[in-house]
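TL;DR need C-alpha cells for one chain.
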Amino acid sequence: MLRCGLTGGIGSGKSTVAAGLVARGAGLVDADVVAREVVEPGSPAFAPVVARFGPEVVGADGRLDRAALAAVVFADASARADLEALTHPVIGERMLAAARAAEEAGRRVLVLDAALLDRRSRERYHLDVVVVVDTPVEVAVRRLVERRGFAEADARARVAAQASREERRALADLVVDNSGDREALEAEIDRTWSWLGSLAA
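>> reply
TL;DR here they are.
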C-alpha cells in the first residue's frame, strides 16, 4: 500500500483535494476527524484539555467548545503548543491504527490528510510521498472570508499561525496548484491520482 501524506494550509482546498482522491479510489485517514474524536467527552484527550484550559472551553452540552478553544490557542503560541502536546500523541496513535486497518482491507493508495505535517510525522506515519496543496495567501484569505464567514483579520491570523507556503513546499514530492478555479483543481487532482497510481503499481 502506498501511503501519501496530504497537507496544505487553512483555505488551501486540501479537503477538496482529499475528497477528490477518495472519489478516484483512495482510502482516507483525516487528521481533523481524528482530532475531533479524541476530545469528545470520555475520549483520552478530553479531560487533560479541560484541565489545562479550564471549564470555559466546555459548551453547555458538555462537549468541547472548539471555537472558544481556537480563540485561545490561535492568539497564544504557548497555549497552542500545550494543546498539541496533549492531543497529538493520541491523534497519532489513532491515525496509525486507521492506516493499518486500511492496509489490511487491501487499499492500494491511502491518503493521510493532515494540516500539521513535517519531516518527523513523515517518518512516524511511514509516508512514501507527501503532496502539498499550495494556494497564495491572498486567495486563501479570500476563500475563508467568502466561503466560511471569517472576518478578514481572523482569516489572516489563522493563515499566519500555520507553516508558511515555503516550509510546506519544502516537504513536497508533488505540489498541487490550487490558485485557480474548480475545473483547474480537478485537473490537478487527476494529475495527482495518476502519479500516485503509477507509484503504487
